[in-house]
Structure formats: structure tokens, C-alpha cells
Amino acid sequence: MNGHFTSGGLQLARYLARPAGRSDALPGLILCHGFPIGPLDARQSALTFPELIDRIANEQRWVAMTFTFRGCGTSEGDFSLQGWVDDLRNAIDHLIAEANPTGIWLVGTNTGGSVATCVAADDPRIRGAALLSPRADFDDWAAQPRRFLEHAREIGAVRTAGYPRAFDEWARELRRFRPVDAARRFAPRPMLVMHGEDDESVPVSDARRLADAHGSAELRVIHGAGHRLRHDPRAVAVLLGWLDRQKSLVA
Fold first, then answer.
1. Which has the closest alpha carbon to 114: 140, 132, 141, 92?
2. With 60 as the cut, is the pLDDT of residue 251 above it?
3. Which of 89, 150, 203, 220 gets the most CB atoms within 10 Å of its CB?
4. Do residues 203 and 177 make contact, with C-beta atoms less than 8 angstroms apart?
5. What average pLDDT does the segment 206-225 reach?
6. Are the beta carbons of 135 and 202 closer than 8 angstroms?
7. Taking residues 171-198, what's their average pLDDT?
8. H/E segment holding residue 149
9. What is the rounded distance in angstroms from the CA atom of residue 86 to the CA atom of residue 89?
10. What digits encode the pLDDT tens for the residues 43-69?
11. Cα–Cα distance between 31 and 29 in angstroms, integer?
């Protein structure tokens, strides 16, 4: 990461890239990582994202940024869904202050895509959103919040002893934010929804629910792909092509 910004009194690590030799106003992009899964713990979140940010900035001429949400990477704090929503809102403000982009697009993988949908729905500054392997809701977490909290502790997304102080409120947030409802509010702004046909973590039906709620989203199901679309060259090619088309929408 090459910098920081503040969210709720926490220092969050970010990586910002501009195309070489360009100082004029450019479209802006924020790439959001997902909730840590599998063998990767929270401290390793988004390690490969700066590589993709550099590619988007230099090959496609965007001012592009990624960051690690609270409780992940070297960012401070502990996971909460409201906290992640606040972090993305502050990331948008930070990118505007740093680069004054002509518009902002959000790209999110997994939970990051779901959070991006919730934030974008109510922020008119967001011109479009691309979601990779998103979840349509957080109902599975909300159904067993204490078990989910323990999992978050095990992977390092919750690090502070005694956190959260108000467990019931922390748990309620898992039902408060509903990406499938947010997708409906986000329409008719452009939305790309991609999902692996063989996703082992989030069913492909979640992508279809999000696309159907939006009404005019571009839905792409990648044959034979799993959950980590960020590492599937076909999915990256679809994303870069969609971003290239989005630039024509900049006024």
C-alpha cells in the first residue's frame, strides 16, 4: 500500500495509481476486496489488488484505488458491516479529495461487491458498479451471528478483546444491509454482475437475484470458474472490457 486515509478514527491502508504522465481529470475507480475466506487470513486481504489497480490505471487510463477495510491487511480496527460501509464512503471522499475524478465507478469482489452495491445505491456520485461473485444478502451470517463472530476472530478480522461491546447491534447490521434491495435502488445506472458457475462459497443464484433486482444489469456466468474470479483471466478480461465501455459515459 502507498498511503492511508481515515475512517471513523481508524487509519486504513490504500493504494492509489494514476496513469504515467497524466495530470488531467480522469474517471475514478475504487476496487473493494471481500471478506477473508479459506486459508487466507484477514492480514493477507487484497495483496494482489495493487497489481490490478496498476493495470487499470496504466492500460485503461483511470485514476484507480484499492484499500483494505477495517480489520484487514494493515488497516486498523475490527470488522463490522456498518464499519465496512462507512469505510467505503470515506474511501470515495478520499479519492475525490486526492484526484477530483470525472466520475466514480466501484468494483467489488465477494462481500466487497455486496458492500459496494449498498453504498452505491444511495450515492449519486457513483456512475456504475461491477460485482464479482457477490452475495445477495448476509442472511447466513445473521442466522448465527455468534458463530460468525467467532469465525471473524479466528481469521483475524476481529482482533480486539471484548469486541464488539454491543453485540446485538453488531448482529443487527447483518440484516440491515441488503444488497438485493440496494441493486434495485441503484438502477438504472450501469451494473455488471459476474459469477463463477462452480462457485463453492456463494451460489450463482445470488448473482441472478442481484441482476434481476437491478433490471438491466449485465450478467456474466463464467463457465467452470470458482469463487476467486479476480484470478480468472476470463473474468478480468470481461471486467476490463466493461470498464473500457464505461469511459464513454463520462461527460
1. 132
2. no
3. 220
4. no
5. 96
6. yes
7. 97
8. helix 145-155
9. 5
10. 777 778 999 999 999 999 999 999 999
11. 7
Fold of 3-249: Rossmann fold (3.40.50)
Residues 6+ apart with CB under 8 A from 144: none
Query: CB–CB of 35/89 below 8 Å?
Result: no
Of 156, 140, 151, 207, nearest to 179 by C-alpha is 207
Residue 248 CA to residue 51 CA, distance in Å, equals 24
| pLDDT at residue 21 tops 90 | no
**How many CB atoms within 10 Å of residue 177?**
19
pTM: 0.95
Identify the three-state secondary structure at position 203.
coil
The kind and range of the H/E element at 15 are: strand 10-17
Question: Grid cell 473500457 — which residue?
Answer: 244
Domain spans of the chain, in order of start: 3-249
Any idea what DSSP says for residue 43? G
CA pair distance 40, 213, nearest whole angstrom:
32
- C-alpha distances (whole Å) from 32 to each of 35, 150, 160, 224, 235 are 10, 23, 23, 24, 16
| Residue type (1 letter), 113 | G
Q: How much of the chain exceeds pLDDT 90, in percent?
A: 85
User: In whole angstroms, what is the distance from residue 186 CA to residue 127 CA?
Assistant: 10
8 A C-beta contact, residue 80 and residue 10: no
